């Protein structure tokens, strides 16, 4: 009977450990999703600003004084 009790304890510990790992994985996925959402929002703001600047430059027929895009 002692062997059966030990096996049950090991199975219980294993199940608890698996549950902990699943919770950790869920937290990592949640954090990644939040970061993706933040990055998407920032990208949208950046594109909107670029479009507004382009519209303004086209309306006035001038170019921006400082480079808006770092690579240009």
TrEMBL record:
Coiled coil: none annotated. This is Remorin C-terminal domain-containing protein. It comes from Solanum lycopersicum (Tomato). Residues 7-66 form the Remorin C-terminal domain. It comes from the Eukaryota. InterPro entries: Remorin_C (IPR005516). PANTHER family: OS02G0117200 PROTEIN, REMORIN-LIKE. Belongs to the remorin family.
């Amino acid at each position: 009977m002692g062997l059966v009790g030990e096996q049950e304890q090991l199975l219980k510990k294993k199940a608890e450990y698996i549950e902990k790992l699943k919770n950790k994985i869920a937290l990592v996925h949640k954090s990644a999703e939040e970061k993706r959402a933040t990055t998407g929002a920032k990208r949208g703001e950046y594109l909107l600003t670029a479009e507004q600047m382009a519209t303004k430059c086209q309306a006035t027929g001038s170019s921006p004084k400082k480079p808006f895009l770092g690579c240009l």
